[in-house]
């Protein structure tokens, strides 16, 4: 089974619209239905999940992030840079110091 998602800003309202599809191994395609909210006394994970996605369907999660990014959403916290990129930055700083030190002489 594969899942897909599309997100669009509603030009006539003040909301974002999400559409989710699933294609099963038998070739049939299904679209998600609107979510119905029920009153509850609690916040948290004590409830049944609103929806779940198979761990193997990483493309769906990536598509979800890509759709939000396309609409202008960005992470609120800085994502830690991989160590290799930091090492390259330090190397470039060292090279700049060497080059500019030689030019001053």
Describe what this molecule looks like in 3D.
The protein is 33% helix and 18% strand. By secondary structure, it is an alpha+beta fold. It has a three-stranded antiparallel β-sheet with strand order 1-2-3. The longest helix has 22 residues, at 83-104. The chain is elongated and about 75 Å long.
Distinctive features:
single chain; alpha+beta; 33% helix; 105 residues; 3 strands; elongated; three-stranded antiparallel beta sheet
Reading side by side through the largest sheet, how are the strands ordered? 1-2-3
Contiguous helical run count: 2
Alpha carbon gyration radius = 23 Å
Written as H for each helix and E for each strand, in order along the chain, the element string is EEEHH
Name the quaternary structure. single chain
Low confidence ranges:
none
- Give the termini distance in whole angstroms: 66 Å
Overall number of domains: 1
How would you classify the helix and strand content by structural class?
Answer: alpha+beta
**Helix content range:** 25-40%
How many E strands?
3
- Let me know the largest β-sheet: 3 strands, antiparallel
Beta-strand percent range: 15-25%
């Amino acid at each position: 089974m594969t899942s897909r998602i599309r997100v669009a800003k509603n030009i006539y309202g003040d909301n974002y619209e999400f559409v989710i599809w699933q294609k099963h191994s038998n070739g049939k395609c299904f679209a998600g239905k609107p979510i119905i909210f029920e009153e509850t006394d609690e916040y948290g994970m004590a409830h049944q999940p609103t929806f779940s996605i198979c761990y193997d369907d990483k493309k769906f999660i990536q598509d979800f992030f890509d759709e939000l990014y396309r609409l202008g959403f960005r992470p609120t916290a800085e994502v830690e840079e991989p160590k290799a990129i930091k090492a390259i930055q330090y190397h470039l700083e060292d090279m700049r110091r060497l080059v500019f030190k030689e030019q001053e002489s």
